[in-house]
């Protein structure tokens, strides 16, 4: 009896029950599901999260725990999610679809995902479309059977696609950069020409991949009947860690985007995957190696500002503590500016949720009352990367309510973690004024966001950013504030870096327009904007469903999944068949 696993499984069972009982339906059926899953434009999205799990006891299924882990990473991506497990005879089982974890998985689908190891993904697209064909993990049958889950974004997809077509002769069936990444890995493994590969071959293949592509990638992968793999790009832009827990005579192993997954599953010894490192875990060994040429380690600072859960520790830095420090640093800036402007503040009010930690520290530092003036409807999710500006606007009002008592006749200092499109600030400033605030001053824990993110956060279009091409006064005017105060970049970096001085640089490209990987040209940015600005995204989605680009050899055929568009999001493939195909709908 594997005690560790058994305990873990009982715990998982309870949590899974909780996740699943959050559903508003009992018997999933096609018609019921169409009500349960919100229309696409209502889904709130952030980024992506990845996970990998290998249980010491292969007779225990990994899927329930992967499902639990994905629900803990839900804040990273709410557009689609998926799990692939590997069971008896090295066979893969997958379930992936558009929707949140609680909507995509139920007891039946989880019970079909057999096998003691697997990988999972929660997605918000930064390449391609929201088409369910691009939900992850991705599968490719040759060589050996590989699945991959990716958080990040490649900036050289166009040349990689050409390479796949013209040189590797690999068919790429979607517009997802993650499918390219998987095929790059597969192509490199193919080069070994071996009947059976070993760790050495895998390290060589991933090392090759790291030379051949540019961008951000924190990935988990699985080789049929072999083991699970994690690797992180040479700049370590996106987070990824590993943990283990005792299980009988051996250990269970976990890879996850954030450490909270390890905490919840009773794993310990959380360790970050190093930039440029690959880790391979089989039932008998753990092998790790730096496979890339040394590069500047530059984790994305925006994980600390907004994305990650406050109870996560990323690259040795507590997200919570870094946000407290951001509040302290911002207090000093606010004090200075208020003095210069001769303005006094009566009360500090956070914009829930992310800014609360920083706002409380700021209020304490300035010796000002802290009040929760906005109450949030917790059933409406994160706003800033919600698709479509109209929808984002509407949702701020649906989400937040201003308590008149806390605003009336007061000079109010609203604290937010960041101002992206300005949708939230614009709406809440108006709400504060509507309930009688005298002056509304906004303080942001992050500096003005003026540039596109190309590394896995869907902020591709500079024109959509309220700070792009505007100075502080113009931003205040655009959002209707009496005054806006921004954290300085050195203060933001210091707030995070003080907890791990060994990190010398952070990716701050959204503030500076400097991209650590190189290769981000103005031409590329314009191309990205032409593909992914709010106003064109939906057209891309429509185009995806039927278009052929007519380029190259095998070309990129019509989307194989078109036939199920509009059907239930509950898709379970008993085994993976044709790659990326949704062949069984429940
Ligand atoms: O300027 P905008 O485009 O409106 O984006 C910025 C806002 O979006 C995020 O909040 P969100 O509601 O997504 O999540 P939260 O509840 O975690 O704060 C962020 O915390 C800011 O409040
Ligand atoms: N946000 C992400 O990390 C997205 C991963 C990948 N680029 C996709 O679009 O699916
Ligand atoms: Mg917010």
From TrEMBL:
One of its GO terms (molecular function) is metal ion binding. Residues 48-284 form the Glutamine amidotransferase type-2 domain. Gene3D superfamilies: 3.40.50.2020, Glutamine Phosphoribosylpyrophosphate, subunit 1, domain 1. Pathway: Purine metabolism; IMP biosynthesis via de novo pathway; N(1)-(5-phospho-D-ribosyl)glycinamide from 5-phospho-alpha-D-ribose 1-diphosphate: step 1/2. Its EC number is 2.4.2.14. One of its GO terms (biological process) is 'de novo' IMP biosynthetic process. SUPFAM superfamilies: N-terminal nucleophile aminohydrolases (Ntn hydrolases), PRTase-like. The active site is at residue 48. CDD domains: PRTases_typeI. PROSITE patterns: GATASE_TYPE_2. Keywords: Glutamine amidotransferase, Glycosyltransferase, Magnesium, Metal-binding, Purine biosynthesis, Transferase. Its cofactor is Mg(2+). InterPro entries: GATase_2_dom, Ntn_hydrolases_N, PRTase-like, PRTase_dom, PurF. Binds 1 Mg(2+) ion per subunit. Mg(2+) binds at residues 354, 416-417. It comes from the Eukaryota. The keyword Metal-binding applies. It catalyses: 5-phospho-beta-D-ribosylamine + L-glutamate + diphosphate = 5-phospho-alpha-D-ribose 1-diphosphate + L-glutamine + H2O. In the C-terminal section; belongs to the purine/pyrimidine phosphoribosyltransferase family. HAMAP family: PurF (MF_01931). PANTHER family: AMIDOPHOSPHORIBOSYLTRANSFERASE. NCBIfam families: purF (TIGR01134). This is Amidophosphoribosyltransferase. It comes from Coniophora puteana (strain RWD-64-598) (Brown rot fungus).
